Amino acid sequence: MTEDVPRTTGSDAFLSVRDLRVRFSTEDGIVKAVDGLSFDVERGKTLGIVGESGSGKSVTNLTVLGLHNPDTSTIEGSINLDGQELLTASERELQKLRGNKMAMIFQDPLTAMSPYYTVGRQLSEPYMKHRGASKKEAKDRAVQMLEKVGIPQPKLRFDDYPHQFSGGMRQRAMIAMALMCDPELLIADEPTTALDVTVQAQILDLLKDLQQEFGSAIIFITHDLGVIANMADDIMVMYGGRAMERGTVREVLHTPRHPYTWGLLSSMPRLDSDVDIALEPIPGTPPSLLNPPTGCRFSPRCVFKDQVAGDLCTTVTPELGEGRDTACHLTSAQKQSIFIDKIQPRLR
Q1: Is the dihedral of CA 189, 195, 197, 201 positive or negative?
Q2: 147, 165, 174, 188: which one has the fewest Cβ atoms less than 10 Å from its Cβ?
Q3: Which domains does the chain have, with CATH numbers?
Q4: Ramachandran assignment for 82, one of left (phi > 0), alpha (psi -120 to 50 degrees), beta (any other)
Q5: How does strand 46-50 pair with strand 217-222?
Q6: What is the CA radius of gyration of the chain?
């Protein structure tokens, strides 16, 4: 395995997140949902964030949008969007940015869209608010966007309610809503989870086409590595509220270096593999973020921690550096040896 050249970060970043920490107050205690997360997203590029449920993916991106309740959450660090610090921005400033400069495609459009208003009204109102457009101008723009995302007879469907759309059409309408004001940052939170494979492929192709047209930076959240392989330029693997590995799509999927990434890839079925080869699930369960493990968050489930000298894995938290890196105490030589001998044969 050859050593990958780290990508530069920071200077070209449209979104820069540094040492982000998000904690929630609950009846059971403090939930450390995100703990020291840093990443960049460049203009016109897609960052894929992958990991199991509860790893902090959605919490991170809701924090970017400023959608957490300040009475029950504590947020520290820095989120810089095109030179503007979001964590110190007022609610009024954030409202000007949401739906305008940054937008989100939610996982379930049926619950994200209001059942009491027509699809057309829900598309038009943000455009009138952010762009000062007239009702007619907003309707024309909404019909244009519905047509662009592939909704048949958009003028007629403009007055339909969300329940009158199929699942795939609602997701397309949600994408149209997010793109109404040409946002420079688009966050897609598992936008194809509930869709069948054919519609899923159509939605992914649509997002790629629209990104080329509008030049948006995209954060794509998913647990499906197959999806991310076709969508992202870079990948960040999250576990237990922390980043485990980061690199380009090719680096992370072809030469993964972290035991958690190895586990994700080894447990993923492949169409071109021998049907007799058994999948290897990751042992154990994700950690409780009320009382996360000391040291490496993944150490209780890691089958390679006995190769690390002493008790580093359970006492010292490994840090993720800039560019191509992993948060792991295994040495580079150990990672290379394990990957070549045990992991790479499974991925062929």
Answers
A1: negative
A2: 147
A3: 13-101+183-347 (3.40.50.300), 118-176 (no CATH)
A4: left
A5: parallel
A6: 21
Q: What is the pTM of this model?
A: 0.90
Number of neighbours of residue 270 by Cβ within 10 angstroms: 13
SS3 content of the chain, % helix, strand, coil (to 5): 35, 20, 40
What 3-state DSSP class applies to 119?
helix
CB under 8 Å to 22, separation ≥6 — which residues? Answer: 33, 34, 56, 59, 60, 63, 68, 73, 74, 75, 241
Helix (H, G, I), strand (E, B) or coil at 103: strand
The Cα 95–Cα 45 span in angstroms is 24
Up-side HSE of residue 60: CA atoms within 13 Å toward CB?
36
Average of per-residue pLDDT values in the chain: 89
Q: Is the dihedral of CA 201, 204, 208, 211 positive or negative?
A: positive
Where residue 299 falls (left for φ over 0; alpha for ψ -120 to 50; beta otherwise) is alpha
Q: Tokens at residue 96, please?
A: 């000007």
* Residue found under tokens 């810089």: 80
H/E run at residue 244: strand 242-248
Question: In a 3-state reduction of DSSP, which class is residue 58?
Answer: helix
CA 311, 314, 316: angle at the middle one, nearest 5? Answer: 85
Question: Going by DSSP bridges, is the β-strand pair 217-222/185-189 parallel, antiparallel, or unpaired?
Answer: parallel
Tokens of 143: 């019909």
pLDDT on residue 168: 85
265 vs 270 pLDDT, higher one: 265
Report yes or no: 66 and 98 within 8 Å, Cβ to Cβ: yes
66-81: average pLDDT:
94
Residue 150 pLDDT class (50, 70, 90 cuts)? confident
Distance between CA atoms of residues 247 and 218, nearest Å: 16
